[in-house]
Amino acid sequence: SPEGKLYIGLAFNKTTPEESNNPADYTWSEMPQNIEIGGRNLLLDSHFYNSSGGWQARNSPLSRENDVITIYPNGSNIGATRFELTIVIKEAGVYTLSAKVKATTGLQFRGFVGTTATNQSIHQTNNEWTIISTQFEITEPEKEIIIRLYLQDGSAGQVASMDWAKLEKGNKATDWTPAPEDVQAEIDEAKQEAERAKQEAQQAKTTADGKNSVFTQSTQPS
User: Fold this and answer.
1) Up-side HSE of residue 135: CA atoms within 13 Å toward CB?
2) Residues 25-57: pLDDT tens digits?
């Protein structure tokens, strides 16, 4: 077999589960090659629960509602209306950016700053939620880059929305997951809420104990 290639062998009509050392006992199929899977989301608040996650709109307003960010073009610059994000990448390598989006016009990843060229295919979502992705390479560490997702038509009346975004190392897009920092923040917030509830309960008990206290003295009150 070609050196460096990955293959998987399937054995049919075997009567025992023991593996065979004879390659002729298997039917061989070439596996997908050169796939690098990262998985760790490098974007904070990427589902927009608390903010726009650093994304901005260029040449049009950006709104955030129900954990979705949306551009409502005003037609001021039809060809340059876009989502834009600036981020520092710590390690060189190949990265995949994916996003769940919908729009009344085509969407296109292009014009990235600080990276290699991206696939500039125009994604037509027909205004239905669709996951799109692109790959790019960073050639040096600690690199500030600018990511851009353009509206094909930035005329007034068009609409483009993003439900979430994920940036991960590798050339394979995986399902959305929060950044580890976001998960830790949720854990810390839950701990703080539990501590506040504990303190409030203790305060309520102390107040109740005070109200129910019985005072005694040796002489009759005058």
Assistant:
1) 12
2) 777 766 554 444 458 999 999 999 999 999 999
SS3 80: coil
CA–CA gap between residue 162 and residue 149 (Å, rounded): 10
3-state secondary structure of 33: coil
Those residues whose C-beta lies under 8 Å from the C-beta of residue 28, and which sit 6 or more positions away, are: 1, 7, 8, 9
Strands of the sheet containing 122-123, edge to edge, are: 56-58, 82-89, 143-151, 107-109, 122-123
- In this structure, the dihedral spanned by the alpha carbons of residues 20, 26, 32 and 33, taken in order and rounded to 10 degrees, is 60
- Alpha-carbon distance of 85 to 180, in angstroms, equals 19
Q: For Cα atoms 181, 184, 189, give the angle at the middle one, nearest 5 degrees.
A: 125
Spatial distance between the Cα atoms of 53 and 62, rounded to a whole number of angstroms: 12
Q: Do the Cβ atoms of 92 and 139 come closer than 8 Å? A: yes
pTM of the model: 0.70
